């Protein structure tokens, strides 16, 4: 028996090495049977429309699970929604898809704010709807105020809706600490109230007890999540998203001050940081499953050209440039060893602060896949010039992102998410185990 145990240990050790086939004794999967890719799924317009599941979603997810009830590839849900906690979204997805989803697989637009630690001990004002105070605290922010709390303390400031004006003479209750930063989680319910009070906070440098002042430059730090101008719910046509709210805020600020509103951070798709964070979650999943094969390819499946496709292509560009810098660095290192000339420029420095925080990406490509079950309307886009001229004329991306026709060109266009998964398995020559 001891001899058999020793033999089993030996066989297990040998089979844990990469590039060996599956071992019949210990059952360890070889590298060739492990996934070398990860999937990033958008939610609205890909898996659901509002609260209604898209039929292809369940079908697609049956392919992603093995008989033991485990995912066969690493999967992250990257949504620009931001009005609930990750656990709530994971529960919704489990119900819709009929498979267990963990909160560690869910990335909301605000998730990268977890890394902005320098603001975690500052007094921050949060704007949005849903449990915004809980969301902020969950991300690590310790001193959080809502727009509602400001309104209660300064009842004279919110007067657009005549019915909400104080009925009796009232004065401010100055028990609100000075605000040091503003976080915009998502579109609020009462736009006029939030627009008014956020502008007030910026023009009083965080102290609503004061009148508007001559501006400090720069204004208080502003961190915004989710730049989607529009999104697709159950209605026939797209609905206003948080990006529409940001357009209002930016324009009011500029009209009043003559200056541009500046963001300390813009997170959520299509920002690069969001994809870096998503890739980090993919790597974490692979490591938890003891998949030793590096994740080289990412596939991002979405319905919005300006968000999902632009973001995936932007991240792909970042990965390609990083790879080129890595090669230049290797050549320069070799040149130093051999004594020939080879200089590294500062640009060749591989890692910025987020790479150091999240560890370097293992992926070398991020492929964009566009589905036709959401915002994207294939008939409208193909009217002229592949839709490029109309896209440029009506660029739906955020003010701080430039229109680039290459970035809104999807790697693949598929009917729905099920077709996307089938195509990816084919491309990767992957057979689920
Ligand atoms: Mg979408």
From TrEMBL:
<dbReference type="InterPro" id="IPR050324">
    <property type="entry name" value="CDP-alcohol_PTase-I"/>
</dbReference>
<dbReference type="InterPro" id="IPR006357">
    <property type="entry name" value="HAD-SF_hydro_IIA"/>
</dbReference>
<keyword id="KW-0732">Signal</keyword>
<dbReference type="InterPro" id="IPR006353">
    <property type="entry name" value="HAD-SF_hydro_IIA_CECR5"/>
</dbReference>
<dbReference type="InterPro" id="IPR036412">
    <property type="entry name" value="HAD-like_sf"/>
</dbReference>
<comment type="similarity">
    <text>Belongs to the HAD-like hydrolase superfamily.</text>
</comment>
<dbReference type="GO" id="GO:0005739">
    <property type="term" value="C:mitochondrion"/>
</dbReference>
<dbReference type="GO" id="GO:0046474">
    <property type="term" value="P:glycerophospholipid biosynthetic process"/>
</dbReference>
<protein>
    <recommendedName>
        <fullName>Haloacid dehalogenase-like hydrolase domain-containing 5</fullName>
    </recommendedName>
</protein>
<dbReference type="Pfam" id="PF13344">
    <property type="entry name" value="Hydrolase_6"/>
</dbReference>
<dbReference type="InterPro" id="IPR023214">
    <property type="entry name" value="HAD_sf"/>
</dbReference>
């Amino acid at each position: 028996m001891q001899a058999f145990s020793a033999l089993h240990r030996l066989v297990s050790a040998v089979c844990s090495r990469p590039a060996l086939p599956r071992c019949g004794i210990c059952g360890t999967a070889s590298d060739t049977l492990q996934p070398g890719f990860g999937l990033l799924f958008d939610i609205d317009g890909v898996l659901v429309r509002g609260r209604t599941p898209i039929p292809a979603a369940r079908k697609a997810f049956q392919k992603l699970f093995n008989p033991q009830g485990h995912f066969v590839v690493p999967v992250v849900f990257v949504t620009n929604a931001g009005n609930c906690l990750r656990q709530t979204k994971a529960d919704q997805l489990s119900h819709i898809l009929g498979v267990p989803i963990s909160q560690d697989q869910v990335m909301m637009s605000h998730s990268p704010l977890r890394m902005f630690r320098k603001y975690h001990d500052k007094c921050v004002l949060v704007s949005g709807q849903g449990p915004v105070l809980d969301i902020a605290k969950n991300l690590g922010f310790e001193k959080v105020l809502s727009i509602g709390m400001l309104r209660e303390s300064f009842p004279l400031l919110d007067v657009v809706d005549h019915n909400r004006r104080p009925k009796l003479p009232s004065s401010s209750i100055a028990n609100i600490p000075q605000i040091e930063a503003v976080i915009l989680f998502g579109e609020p319910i009462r736009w006029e109230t939030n627009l008014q009070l956020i502008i007030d906070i910026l023009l009083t440098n965080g102290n609503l007890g004061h009148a508007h002042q001559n501006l400090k430059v720069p204004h208080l730090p502003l961190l915004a999540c989710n730049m989607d101008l529009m999104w697709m719910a159950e209605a026939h046509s797209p609905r206003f998203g948080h990006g529409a709210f940001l357009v209002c805020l930016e324009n009011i600020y500029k009209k009043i001050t003559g200056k541009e509103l500046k963001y300390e951070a813009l997170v959520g798709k299509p920002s690069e940081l969001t994809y870096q964070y998503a890739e980090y979650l993919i790597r974490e999943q692979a490591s938890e499953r003891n998949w030793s094969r590096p994740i080289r390819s990412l596939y991002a499946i979405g319905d919005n050209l300006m968000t999902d496709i632009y973001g995936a292509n932007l991240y792909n560009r970042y990965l390609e440039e990083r790879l080129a810098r890595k090669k230049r660095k290797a050549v320069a290192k070799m040149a130093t060893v051999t004594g020939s000339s080879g200089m590294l420029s500062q640009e060749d420095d591989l890692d910025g602060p987020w790479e150091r925080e999240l560890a370097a990406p293992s992926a070398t490509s991020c492929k964009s896949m566009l589905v036709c079950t959401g915002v994207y309307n294939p008939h409208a886009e193909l009217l002229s010039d592949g839709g490029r001229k109309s896209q440029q004329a009506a660029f739906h991306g955020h003010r701080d992102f430039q229109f680039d026709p290459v970035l809104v060109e999807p790697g693949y266009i598929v009917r729905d998410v099920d077709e996307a998964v089938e195509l990816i398995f084919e491309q990767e020559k992957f057979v689920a185990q």
